[in-house]
Amino acid sequence: MATIRIPTTMRGLTGNKGEVRVAGATVGEVLKNLEQAHPGMGARVFDDKGAVRRYVNVFLNDEDIRFLQELSTPVAEGDRITLIPAIAGG
Length: 90
Known about the structure:
single chain; 90 residues; alpha+beta; Ubiquitin-like (UB roll); 5-stranded mixed sheet; 5 strands; globular
């Protein structure tokens, strides 16, 4: 199981939990299982084509998955996935 750090803006979908534990062999599986455990999270993370939304950054143990194997990046027991939505303002 991996621990997923949930940003404040998405915690309403996880019962206000800042971290949840979810099983999966890859980052993609973990995030899909996150949707099953907490409905609504998938729409916040994935676009209509199943890719991570442009404004959501996903890190595995402090490494941006875009520089690893993206959603196919393997996940080991105890790994940490962090979701960071981009914030716009002015």
